[in-house]
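As a warm-up, study this chain.
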Amino acid sequence: MNIPAGAPSNSAARVGGAVDRARRALTCGLVGAPAFGRAAFATTAQTHRAPILVFHRFAATAMDSMTLRAANFEAQLRMLANLSCRMISLSEWVAWRLALAAGADAMLPPRAVVLTADDGHRSQYEVMAPLLRDRGWPITLFVYPSAISNASYAMTWPQLRDLAADPLVSVQSHMYWHPNLLRERGHMTPDAFHRFAANQLTRSRDTIEQRLGHPVTLLAWPFGLSDDGLAAQAAEAGYQAAFSLGNRSAGPSDPLYAVPRHLIVDSVDLG
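Now compare it with the structure written out below.
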């Protein structure tokens, strides 16, 4: 999420207002859950939830609201390890949801946690990826292709290919140029907006698939903003699931095209 790039003027305040409370609640939930056992977070598949965390950029100091200090990130990883959390890939979480929808009695591992990162910032390659690789933890990267090898803050396509060569790394779609879709809708006729959104969905998917040579089936909404119409378009474009922001753990009752993720920033030290 790149707040200055066209978000409503109150987006930073709205995002930041609940982050501290949500991250404290996330930490308390992880600390309070039993460390072992099949029912660590729930007693049945239908009440099983897992936190999906989303990171953005990393640096030695937190220069803005979306930057996480590298030292703080390392402390968060240690906390997750010390709490015996089990890192699963986002595709595993989606497979679990689809299995439940098909009527299977599917379960996630105890203390399952999912890691994601948005926007394709270069610090994900330089700071985040080596730390996760050392632990053998999976990560899903949501990128918008217009920035890759173009924006000064973004990774290059060779860097993304390097990351994507690791089976623990998945690169998925964040639309083509990170538009505020709800704002764009207000500037267009319904037909024009439908074409615009369809182009963003398919152009991003097709570009990533062409550049990296693997299927793109997952989507993260820019700024976490979507609605039922956009969800229907994402499904029509072939996406299996789409992810937003919600600062609550994701479970069977969440809409599959608006799955909540915990926004992890630097405002609270979890170490």
